[in-house]
Amino acid sequence: MRKHMLSRREFLKHSSLTGLGTALILGVTPSLYANLVKDAATPALLGGQPVRTKGWPEWPMWNPATDEERVLEVLRSGVWSRNDVVEEFEEKWAQVIGTKRCLGTTNGTHALITSLHVLGVGAGDEVLVPPYTFVATVAAILQNNAMPVFVDVDRETFQIDPAKLEDKITPNTRAILPVHILGLPADMPAINAVAEKHDLVVLEDACQAWLAEINHQRVGSFGDLGCFSFQNSKNIPIGESGAIVGDDDQLMDKAFSFHNFGRPHGSVTGNGYVMAGTKCRMAEYQAAIGLAQLQRLEEQTKTRNENAAYLTSQIKDIPGILPHRLYDGVTQAAYHLYPFRYDPDGFSGLPREKFLTALRKEGIPCSDGYTPLNTMPYLADAFKSRAFQKTYPASQLNFENYKQQNSCPENDQLTKEAVWLFQNMLLGTRSDMDDIAAAISKIHQHADDLV
Ligand SMILES: Cc1ncc(COP(=O)(O)O)c(C=O)c1O
Fold first, then answer.
1. pLDDT digits (tens, 9 = 90+) for 84-106
2. Which one, 15, 96, 153, 399, has the greatest CB density within 10 A?
């Protein structure tokens, strides 16, 4: 597999011969030159020079000239609770996603909790959800006293596998909660077809997928409702905030009421309560930051997509690097994260953790991503609650049974092989992408030494 690669010794010999003339021209002695070459060629983890010493685009970004003015305006107005600026943000976000309505919320987690509630998901209901996601997706199901049922993933795309949905449907199944994880679209046409066939509601967790598209339709607009997060690390960062989008006026009115103490839609204050609610409103200064951030989102998303495609083209042939796959019909991804899978066999058996350490030492930030959410103690803890104990039969709450029934072997494997790079890195230049590819390549060439 690796026979086309130069061995470390051949690589050094090759580098020394081609570079010796340059060294002599520059007046560097051959022995000093040999050391310099060695340093550049040696993995940083083994004491060599890193591929990259400069930083990456900082996150979050803001433009003092335009963004600060908008926020200061709100600050000086003294109107900080939900008002006109939140409404302006909601109108814009609905327009951006292509839905009739949008509701701003405190965060993505409460956007999900609210959405499930107004979709009628509650005690005794089962919700189909992928295990490869952030814990908030599953927490939102548990908060509604519903039962998460894990559906295994497609490792190539990192998304819920639509072919595995039907096996998990029971008479208690009420909803599918697909997640466009990492900002790559899940296969919504296939998911919606299953939902339609079995009369299930669909809530999209698009908390990492702003502007991601399938056939030019933006994710969040495929399901009955869609949710977004604008937390600090997100591609549209507000610090904390979220949104629900949808076309159904009744559902969106209900979501408004639920998020505002149960007051009727359109009444932010007042004493008329039409339903039992909570409070998870977006604030005016959050909306002001969001409106400012929105100005850059389209262009930044384009840059991330271009750089992601270029990076893939540069690393796809390195043995042991398995790039992610986008579903047919995906016209844009959000790339909150740039993932690939790592196979140690292509790297002389170098374990993933050591590969990641070596990559970081070369100046490339990276992560090993999620751990399996379908087997963790938070589930057993939720099952011990009085609400769960009263709602579900003991056999369903037996955690060993639950883990068996919810086993997701593909996800177990994915969590062992995933490597993530971060969205801000994709806002760099082509030469920044070349640095990433060079670092991976360097580690590959020196895998034997690193092992
Ligand atoms: C997939 C997913 N769902 C839900 C959330 C929750 O969003 P928030 O942090 O805004 O509550 C996040 C946030 O990281 C997320 O990544």
1. 999 999 999 999 999 999 999 99
2. 153
